[in-house]
Design a protein that fits this description.
alpha/beta, Rossmann fold, Alpha-Beta Plaits, 2 domains, six-stranded mixed beta sheet, four-stranded antiparallel beta sheet, about 30% helix
Length: about 230
């Protein structure tokens, strides 16, 4: 099975948890772009209705094109269930997210949700966060270089902070900010690192999602594995 097939294999368990009348947080990235049409299909076939709150402009556009009702996060008081992908998941169900650059909005919506479900293929399972994927950090454009220097001085001093560039142009988030992608070293304490980063002036949010996932649904060649908090 290729990665797309592994991702698709996780959808049934997630779709079963979407019920009529729910407010659903809908994430970002390649997995969710495959999932959104399946959600729209379920709504039509089961004759149910939901309200979507999306973590990116792109996801919102796809959902609206498929006829789903989408509202702004400020129009709801809570979210019943949030569904998203992840770039890495460790053995404690902690995550790195933000490969698509929507980490701040993802964190807002995931924190509002009564239940947060993550869909991944088994290549995203790691021994420690930062093992295979850089840690995204959303930073203000005004002082991004100063922030990157402070980050690189942390701890052992061997962290590398790289401003994300796409097609030779600095990547801009939906919030109008830059992303710094951090190369981390093994055994770095994710909790301490997050606390250091979040208190730097100019940092909006980090791609560490710690102690927030309620369930991880993993697609693997051996079948779907469901990991509960």
């Amino acid at each position: 099975m290729n990665k797309k097939q592994l991702k698709l294999s996780t959808f049934d368990d997630a779709l079963d948890q979407i019920k009529d009348g729910m407010i659903v947080g809908i994430g970002s990235g390649s997995t969710i772009e495959l999932l959104v049409p399946k959600i729209a299909e379920k709504l039509e076939q089961a004759h149910i209705d939901i309200t979507g709150v999306c973590t990116s402009n792109k996801t919102a556009y796809i959902a609206k094109e498929l006829g789903m009702r989408v509202v702004d996060v400020n129009d709801v008081d809570k979210i019943d269930i949030a569904i998203d992908g992840a770039d890495e998941v460790d053995n404690q169900l902690n995550l790195i997210k933000g490969g698509g650059g929507a980490l701040f909005r993802e964190k807002v919506i995931d924190a509002m949700a009564d239940r947060f479900i993550v869909l991944i293929d088994d290549s995203k399972c790691v021994d420690y966060l930062g093992q295979t994927f850089k840690l995204p950090v959303e930073v203000d454009k005004f002082n991004w270089l100063l922030v990157s220097k402070k980050i690189e001085s942390y701890g052992k001093g061997n962290i590398k902070a790289i401003r994300r560039v796409v097609d030779d142009v600095p990547f801009i988030t939906d919030n109008g900010n830059y992303i710094l992608d951090l190369e981390l070293y093994e055994n770095i304490d994710a909790y301490e690192m997050h606390e250091y980063l979040i208190h730097l002036v100019g940092v909006l949010e980090t791609g560490y999602f710690l102690d927030v996932a309620d369930q991880i649904i993993v697609g693997s060649p051996d079948g779907v594995k469901v990991l509960d908090k």
